[in-house]
Every structure is written in structure tokens, then in C-alpha cells.
Write a structure and sequence with these properties.
The protein is α+β, with helices and mostly antiparallel strands. The chain is built from 17 helices and 14 strands. It starts with about 35 loop residues before the first helix and ends with a strand.
Length: about 500
């Protein structure tokens, strides 16, 4: 339904072609640009893609019967390996802590420098940059790609498009294939994939990630950032007037005007902007930064490189388009110098995020070094609370769950810290020891017995502590609980 202004005449009832509320998408063909920010993006793209594709192939010796892949999410054995660190399922708080640190880091960078994550390191940005690079190699720079897009289908267009799409597909397959290598031994899985003997889930995962990479990086591109990603809507809460982001110095650039051919300066007084459209032509989002901050801007800085190049050629100072804050705009309009960068970065909001980020990180490191190679959980059996034996002694029962994180079999000794007279017995064991298989869990039932008439037998609750020590290890693990007596 088309909305109309009051008093306007309605559409004819028999109108067969009402006006559309949506404009068709015009593909964005960014022009090649050189500069500091483009070079930075190339380096970040190379490093992040290198990490993603090569990490599963890094080997790490953990001893016999253990995976030798440095980074591995071992779903079968419910463990995560990261070089020398091994995370068990009950230690998921480490993963949760890392996710919290990632979120706080995103808040920190956004509050300090806007959407720098989106512009430089977001996977959508990195793979889109890679696809645009391939597209430029095959079809040419912006003008050549525009001509090819607008020309009728012929042999040249079919050849170039098929070549480009095949390159897209190869990148997408490599992307999906690299992902599954993180979940099992990479060389073994590659062999199974090539011989078609891998699990169907592996093929399904590769197919899904191939399709999404092919579509998102090859066709959707800026639409993912504008319509699918929630971060542009959230970032406003992370930013304030001191946040550094890409901006246009309109007080210096306006009014715009074209340079007369052959003249070094325009004929009439005007701003530094010569309306060359270089900033628009290099933008991967297809926006005009001179219109002010927009939801689609990912602050990648390519428009800065393009504008600086133009300013160099016409002999004007750089920085017509630059990283700046709203407070800088106010100051510069009044003729004052902008704040130093460190004053934009070191302010209460960013200091708070940094402090929280460091607190979580330090907590995870401390927890990592303090954790034991043996985990224990003691559960008192309270049905019944206690049992009176034939000689009048009182017996309590406990179910103990032990997890051996050592990669070899160990003998575990049991003891208790309790008032004199209490003794410990293990069900099915003649001594207070038990053998634990490597990387396994042991369920052991334990009895604590108090002699008849002893203080523990006559007291309702007595605090006790179980102690466990593995053979060949100096560390001890404890778990506190209570002993229940008659309470008379």
C-alpha cells in the first residue's frame, strides 16, 4: 500500500503499475586505490586468512595416544586443544570468558575508533576484499567492470563471468574445507575427503559454508553489512562525541567545484573539494562520506586514501576526509586545533572497558594456572542419611566422581581430614587407593564410619574434608562435606 499526503488525489483504481517502494540494488564496483589504509587492509587480510587456512595444519606433540594438532575442537572426546592448553567440558567457563573478552574488546575498539572491526578484520570484510581482488584481476578495474556489467551478454562477458565465479567457488570451497579441519585431524580428514570416505556431516558442513561464502562474498557483500548484521544498530550505544571515525571536513571542502582543465586552481572561490567522486568510487559500501555519517559506513579509510591522493595532485593539504571526532569538528570550525589522539582514546568509557577486559583476562590466566590435573565431585548419599551397623557404629555413604586429566594411568590415594576415630573405606577396594585410566572419569563409592559412642556418631553434623593425591604428583585436591550422626 502506497502512503499519500493529505489532499493528494488517490491512485486510479485500475492502475496496474503502482510505484515501487523499493529501489533495485545497483552493484558496487570499488575502484582500486593506494594508500596507508589500503596497505593496512592488505596486511590484515593476509594475516587473518593465513591464520584461518594454516592453523589446522600446525602440529603439536602431546605424547602417545593424544592428538598432535595444535588447535583442535575434539567433539568426540569433548575437549578443546589450543597448543599447550587443554580445555575439558566442565571448564567451559574458559570459553565463556574468551567470548566476554571478545565482546568487551569490540566495545573498546568501537568506543575509541568506531567500526574499525567492521572495516578491517570482520570476516565479511576480509572475504569481500578477497573476492573484489579476484574480480579486479579477471574483469579489470572499476570502469571496465561497469562496462562489462552494462553490456549485453556475449562471449566475452560469459567467459569472464564464468572464470570469476569459478574462482569464487574455489575460494568458497577452501573456506568451508578449512573450517572442518578444526574439528578433527586435518591430514586424516583431507585424505578421507579426497577418497569420499569422510563422514557425511563433513561434506554437509563444507557445502553449507561454501554456499554462504560464495553468496555473501561474491554477491551480497555490502547488503550483509547493511541488512543482516546487527552491529551497525548497536554501535551507536558504544560511541560518543569523542569517538574517532571517518568524517568529511565540510567547512574546508565546501562549496565544491570542478577544477578548470589546465588550471591549477578554480576560477572562483570555492572549497578544497573538487567533486572528483574518488571517495565514492573507492568505497566498498557505495556511499558518499561527504553526506555525513551513515549506517553503511564501515570506517575502512579507503575514502581517506583516495581523497589524499587527489589533494596531493592538486596541491592541497591532506585530511579533507580523515579520521576525526565530533569534538574535533566543533573545534576546527571555531579555528581551534583538534584534540590529540590519545585524549580521544584515554577517557572514562574506554578506560572502563579496558579495565573490565584486563580483569577477565587476568582471571582466566589465574584460573588456568591454578586448576588441578584431577577434578573431584563428592555427593553424599542421603537416602538414608546414615546407617547404624551391627556393632553400633554409624556409617555415611558418598559417591565420588573423579576425572583424571593426566594422559597416563594413575593410582589415586584417598584420605580424610576429620576428628579422630572416623575411618574411610572404598567399596570394592582393600586399600584407600584406586586406579584411574588416562583421560577418564572414575565413579567410586566411599564409606565413612564413626565408632559407636564417638563424638562424630553422637553429633548431628561433623565437617570433614576428602583429600585426593595422584601417584607421581605433588598436588593434592580436596572437597569438603559433612558427616551425619545420630544427633542425640
Amino acid at each position: 500500500m502506497v502512503s499519500q499526503n493529505p489532499g493528494s488525489s488517490p491512485l486510479p483504481a485500475d492502475s496496474s503499475n503502482p510505484p515501487s517502494l523499493y529501489a533495485a540494488r545497483e552493484p558496487v564496483f570499488p575502484r582500486r586505490v593506494k594508500g596507508n589504509f589500503r596497505t593496512l587492509k592488505w596486511w590484515i587480510m593476509a594475516i587473518t586468512l593465513g591464520i584461518y587456512y594454516l592453523t589446522p595444519w600446525i602440529r603439536w606433540d602431546r605424547g602417545p595416544n593424544m592428538p598432535d594438532q595444535a588447535v583442535l575442537v575434539d567433539l568426540a572426546n569433548r575437549r578443546f586443544f589450543f597448543f599447550m592448553v587443554e580445555i575439558w567440558p566442565h571448564e567451559f567457563y574458559f570459553v565463556a570468558g574468551l567470548l566476554i573478552m571478545a565482546g568487551l574488546g569490540l566495545f573498546l575498539f568501537t568506543s575509541a575508533a568506531g567500526r574499525v572491526w567492521c572495516g578491517y578484520a570482520c570476516p565479511q570484510t576480509v572475504w569481500t576484499d578477497l573476492f573484489i581482488l579476484v574480480e579486479r584481476w579477471i574483469e579489470g578495474d572499476r570502469n571496465a567492470r561497469l562496462r562489462l556489467h552494462r553490456q549485453a551478454w556475449n562471449a566475452e562477458k560469459v567467459r569472464k563471468r564464468l572464470t570469476k565465479w569459478l574462482a569464487y567457488l574455489l575460494i568458497a570451497v577452501a573456506t568451508g574445507g578449512a573450517w572442518v579441519f578444526y574439528f578433527t585431524d586435518a591430514p586424516s580428514l583431507l585424505r578421507d575427503l579426497l577418497t569420499f570416505s569422510a563422514h557425511p556431516v563433513a561434506y554437509l558442513t563444507i557445502l553449507t559454508l561454501t554456499a554462504t561464502t560464495f553468496v555473501f562474498g561474491g554477491f551480497a557483500r555490502e547488503q550483509i553489512c547493511i541488512y543482516a548484521c546487527p552491529w551497525p544498530r548497536i554501535q551507536a550505544a558504544m560511541m560518543d562525541e569523542d569517538t574517532i571515525t571517518v568524517g568529511y571536513r565540510s567547512w574546508r571542502g565546501e562549496p565544491r567545484g570542478k577544477l578548470k582543465k589546465g588550471a591549477a586552481t578554480p576560477e572562483v572561490a570555492q572549497g578544497d573539494c573538487i567533486d572528483c567522486m574518488a571517495c565514492v568510487n573507492v568505497c566498498p559500501m557505495g556511499i558518499d562520506i561527504r553526506n555525513g555519517q551513515q549506517l553503511a559506513c564501515i570506517t575502512c579509510g579507503l575514502c581517506i586514501d583516495a581523497c589524499n591522493d587527489t589533494m596531493d595532485r592538486i596541491g592541497k593539504p591532506r585530511g579533507l576526509i580523515d579520521y576525526m571526532a565530533l569534538t574535533d569538528e566543533t573545534a576546527e570550525r571555531a579555528g581551534s586545533p583538534p584534540k590529540p589522539v590519545w585524549k580521544h582514546i584515554l577517557r572514562p568509557r574506554t578506560i572502563m572497558y579496558t579495565t573490565m577486559w584486563l580483569a577477565v583476562g587476568v582471571g582466566l590466566v589465574v584460573a588456568l594456572f591454578l586448576r588441578s590435573d584431577i577434578d573431584v565431585n563428592v555427593t553424599p548419599v542421603r537416602n538414608p542419611t546414615f546407617v547404624t551397623l551391627s556393632d553400633g557404629s554409624i556409617r555415611n555413604t558418598y559417591d565420588i566422581r573423579l576425572r583424571n586429566k593426566f594422559h597416563e594411568e594413575r593410582t589415586l590415594s584417598f584420605s580424610i581430614d576429620a576428628p579422630p576415630g572416623l575411618r574411610l573405606e572404598l567399596e570394592g577396594e582393600s586399600a584407600a587407593t584406586a586406579r584411574m585410566a588416562p583421560d577418564a572419569t572414575l565413579q567410586q563409592r566411599v564409606y565413612i564410619i564413626a565408632p559407636a559412642g564417638s563424638p562424630a556418631a553422637q553429633t548431628a553434623r561433623t565437617d570433614i574434608t576428602f583429600w585426593f593425591q595422584a601417584e607421581g604428583s605433588s598436588s593434592r585436591v580436596s572437597a569438603g562435606t559433612v558427616f551425619n550422626g545420630k544427633g542425640q
